[in-house]
Amino acid sequence: MLTAASKILNKSALATTTRAMPLFLSTFPSPTAAAPTVPPLRPPPSQNPGPHLRLPPPPRRALSFIAAAEPAGAPFRTPGRTMESLATSAAAAASAKVTYLSQRDAAEIDKQLMGPLGFSVDQLMELAGLSVAAAVVEVYKLSEHTRVLIICGPGNNGGDGLVAARHLYHFGYKPSVCYPKRTAKPLYSGLVTQLEALAIPFLPVEDLPQDLSGQFDIVIDAMFGFSFHGTPRPPFDDLIQRLLLLSVIGDSVKRLPIVSVDIPSGWHVEEGDINGGGIKPDMLVSLTAPKLCAKKFNGPHHFLGGRFVPPPILRKYGLELPPYPGTSMCVRVGKAPSVDISSLRENYISPELTENQVMPCPFNQFHRWFNEAVTAGLREPNAMALTTVNKAGKPSSRMVLLKGVDKHGFVWYTNYGSQKAHDLSENSNAALLFYWNEMNRQVRVEGSVQKVSLEESEKYFHSRPRGSQLGAIVSKQSTVIAGRDILQQAYKELEQKYSDGSFIPKPDYWGGYRLTPNLFEFWQGQQSRLHDRLQYKQREVDGGTVWHIERLSP
Ligand SMILES: NC(=O)C1=CN([C@@H]2O[C@H](COP(=O)(O)OP(=O)(O)OC[C@H]3O[C@@H](n4cnc5c(N)ncnc54)[C@H](O)[C@@H]3O)[C@@H](O)[C@H]2O)[C@@H](O)CC1
Ligand SMILES: [K+]
């Protein structure tokens, strides 16, 4: 099982964070004697079309090892989702034009969705509330913002808050709800019952402290949405005062953040905070499309949620909205605030890694950790940084994909004309680095590198998809080329040449390498920088070599 903390792997920009390691990893099997053989390596999971809200996929079943994928960055790959596509969609969202809705249009769209377009209010509310929860997870890490107070109003905005409370509970947060004016409709009483079944506390206004910052880490303002008129009536006037108080307590970093759903409550739906005395939320989650008042929002985090707007609505209202990335339920509107790099740090929480827990054979220990990384659903756990050094002592690093490991070493494939190949021809010493961020783990491997046999390279080359085989022929890796079209042209020509499905010969300049290790280091991040580092080094004993384990200071 994964802990709730580990399920929420978010990308918040700022400050120190605590990252808990999946709980199941703490249950190490009892130490065993050195196994004579190395268990088979499982293949990496296929591309994970992960949403913006990154929840690890369910554990995968073990598969037998087939060395059949491409090296990192192989040309002409068509992945489900790459970092490149994430980066592209983030850039597109940041620069996208946004349409703002008047109060009348917002209400009209609502009617159309629930009339001719066939939606029910329950559906829209569920999607809206999920978007709010997803946006909160994007910005406010669970480890730092566990206790969430959701203040719900009498209308649909309040309903969105109730739904968000449920999702946040399931994402591992500890929500409490203040819902002083309940609506006697089955939709709302159902949402309340669902929260009661999760033992989520409902707090009367009288029980809330004047200063909310002592008891909560975030407040979600789901009091009023686009149907708000006039000035807030009791008890919401008092609740809004408490939120106002928050903007004057603490500095901008330590202040209890307020997340407003659709409209900052109390603001005019079109004019915004008219006299400047309204709440100043840190985050606004606009739903369907931002309302006019959102133009006046100048907090650091503006998100859009409600990924359900069909083309007829987009066309009719000429809506331009930022594109949602991947399968995400929310998208940031505008640019993310800049990050102080020096403030980025993690406080790792992991089970201890002790000498008597690890396997005597480092290859077996590697397999154990690798398989756990696969089981946890990490994307490309076989990606490793390879560092080579040329004869002048100049190092260079790049990511490659591990294609096999056994007691003889770690194997990857590449172009024998590449820079790494050139370095290796001058200096066979190299280092590999695996970094499994979500598990607070790193493995370093050092050793010497030789080419694998021609038969091994042939066998692997022909196991690859034909597109990858052609890509390997086309690329004269690490040489300067005039443009992308040259590659595409050469690829097209080859595609035509082999369009009859005939055998594609492996080019001489392509093949594998094997690093035979003389050192391993297994690193596990721990709290307060007291990380575990266990190093395996080879020692001569009675004419043979044995692996000796030492603990290194972090
Ligand atoms: N496409 C859409 O239209 C969607 C709308 N949704 C949500 O629905 C909201 C709109 O919901 P509603 O139309 O129910 O309206 P609101 O939730 O904005 O509020 C209406 C309620 O607030 C009360 N109220 C209004 N002014 C008040 C004041 N001055 N003092 C005290 N009470 C006051 C009204 O009597 C009514 O009970 C949106 O902002 C959004 O959060 C989402 O649930 C789903 C999609
Ligand atoms: K609101």
From TrEMBL:
Region entry Disordered, spans: 32-58
Binding residues for (6S)-NADPHX: N156, N157, G158, G159, D160, G225, F226, S227, F228, H229, G230, T231, D262
GO molecular function: FMN binding; metal ion binding; NAD(P)HX epimerase activity; pyridoxamine phosphate oxidase activity
Keyword annotations: Flavoprotein, FMN, Isomerase, Metal-binding, NAD, Nucleotide-binding, Oxidoreductase, Potassium, Pyridoxine biosynthesis
DNA damage recorded as keyword: no
GO biological process: pyridoxine biosynthetic process
Note describing how the cofactor binds: Binds 1 potassium ion per subunit.
Domain YjeF N-terminal residues, every copy: 106-321
Pro residues composition bias: residue spans: 37-58
Statement: the UniProt record of this protein carries the keyword Cell membrane: no
Enzyme's top EC category: isomerase
Cofactor requirement: FMN; K(+)
Superkingdom: Eukaryota
Enzyme Commission designation: 5.1.99.6
GO cellular component, one term: mitochondrion
NCBIfam families noted in UniProt: pdxH (TIGR00558), PRK05679.1 (NF004231), yjeF_nterm (TIGR00197)
Main function: Catalyzes the epimerization of the S- and R-forms of NAD(P)HX, a damaged form of NAD(P)H that is a result of enzymatic or heat-dependent hydration. This is a prerequisite for the S-specific NAD(P)H-hydrate dehydratase to allow the repair of both epimers of NAD(P)HX.
Name of this protein: NAD(P)H-hydrate epimerase
Organism: Brachypodium distachyon (Purple false brome)
Gene name tied to this protein: LOC100827801
